[in-house]
Amino acid sequence: MISNATDRCRPIEAIPDSELRAIKAVFFDIDDTFSGGEGQSRILPQAYEALWRLKRAGYVVVPVTGRPAGWCDFITRMWPVTGVVGENGAFFSYLDTSKKPQKLSIHVNAWFGKYDKLACVRRILSTFFRIDFPNIVYIGDSPNDEPFFERLPITVGVANVYGFLGRMKHHPAYVTRGDGGQGFAEFAERLLGVRK
Ligand SMILES: [Mg+2]
User: Fold this and answer.
1) For residue range 149-193, what is the model confidence (pLDDT) as tens digits?
2) DSSP letters of 100-142?
């Protein structure tokens, strides 16, 4: 039972530095977490710059989204990310940089059965990165991020998550001051700050 929606959400300044130093991978929702903020629906420049900084600092950076495969293909190729979990965990898209770029063929993917974002992230962590849950952080903003808020030790909500807490059983452990991409950039600064 949640006694008070805000009791369990502490400011990101409260995350112990030792736990931040153990972080190797940043997984994050896109809509209204990486995008949005400052009254915008688009991606803010500080959010995109923060993504570049995280990638250049050597973190595994992976958006986790319900967006379709076509979007994820573009994101995989054009954004500074390690890969993308798409269609709510149906697949993981990444570039194999060990091979020379090739011309595309068309892919049509279809599947049946159970899948979800968390199960997909767990699988790619063990298959591709050999990283455990205590060494990743997840950033989100709404009820469809709840499985991560429930299972991971370090989770961050951007400030607009406050609008959904009353509808959620599991809350992020920490919350930023800013909404959307503003909050994303705020957390990135906190994470990168402990490395200085
Ligand atoms: Mg969202």
Assistant:
1) 999 999 999 999 999 999 999 999 999 999 999 999 999 999 999
2) -------------S---HHHHHHHHIIIII---GGGEEEEE-S
Distance of CA 118 from the midpoint of ligand 1 (Å): 15
- How many angstroms separate the alpha carbon of residue 148 from the centre of ligand 1? 13
Q: How far is the CA of 98 from the centre of ligand 1 (A)?
A: 32
> Pick from 33, 19, 54: which is nearest to 145 by CA?
33
29-64 burial code (b ≥16 CB/10 A, e <16): bbbbbbbbbeeeeebbebbbebbebbbeeebbbbbb
pTM exceeding 0.85: yes
Q: Give me the domains of the chain, ranges plus CATH numbers.
A: 16-94+113-193 (3.40.50.1000)
